[in-house]
Amino acid sequence: MTISTLQKNINERLDEHYEEMVEIRRHLHMNPELSFQEEETAAFIANYYDTLHIPTHTQVGGHGVLAFIEGAAPGPTIALRADFDALPIHDEKEVPYRSTKPGVMHACGHDGHTATLLVLAKILHAHRDQLKGKIVLIHQHAEEYAPGGAKPMIEDGCLDGVDVIFGTHLWSSEPCGAVLYKSGNFMAAPTAFLFRSKEKADTAPSLT
Fold first, then answer.
1. Beta-sheet pairing, 64-70 with 73-83
2. Which of 33, 38, 85, 91 is catalytic?
3. Annotated catalytic residue 143
4. Strand order in the sheet with 56-60
5. Neighbours of 68 (CB within 10 A)
6. What's the CA angle centered on 159, arms 32 and 139, to 5 degrees?
7. Residue 83 appears among annotated catalytic residues
8. How far apart are CA 91 and CA 144, in angstroms?
9. What is the rounded average pLDDT of the residues 116-125?
10. Which residue in 83, 111, 143, 144 is the catalytic one?
11. pLDDT tens digits, residue range 165-191?
């Protein structure tokens, strides 16, 4: 089977599983968990892979989850990454899948990231006899709260042996169907700010 034929088959299967992606995303949206508190979400992810008989590692650097798909032939090890923590924001929309946790919601798309990666993994696993190399599915906890979960997951070995890694992020300001991409670091510099009144700022010690 050629690469173009395999890609076409995978794309068709993804279209067939669109409703499953929506169902997973809405389940996660209804049950958000803050950074470093994502026990139920991590268990949901691991259970999804268990039902597909895809090997996993749990509690990677905290609540992180890894899953592994082995291709039938030798090749590179490719990692695909998604995050799954929520934000301390109250969900005010009136929809059936509204967050059930006051003051906590998926306001940054991590429910969508997780849903798409899970279903993509399902399709890739079904085509594993046509794949070369190895695929590592990285589900990162605590992306929203610096220093976050990436560093402890890396220290715990999530990138060991990985040749290249890809990550995506939903971006609602762009037209539906548009894909923006960039090699290297991108949207990877969280910064915390401390605001003080002018009176306190005037009396604060100098940093120079």
1. unpaired
2. 85
3. yes
4. 56-60, 64-70, 132-140, 73-83, 164-167
5. 16
6. 15
7. no
8. 17
9. 98
10. 143
11. 999 899 888 898 898 888 887 775 666
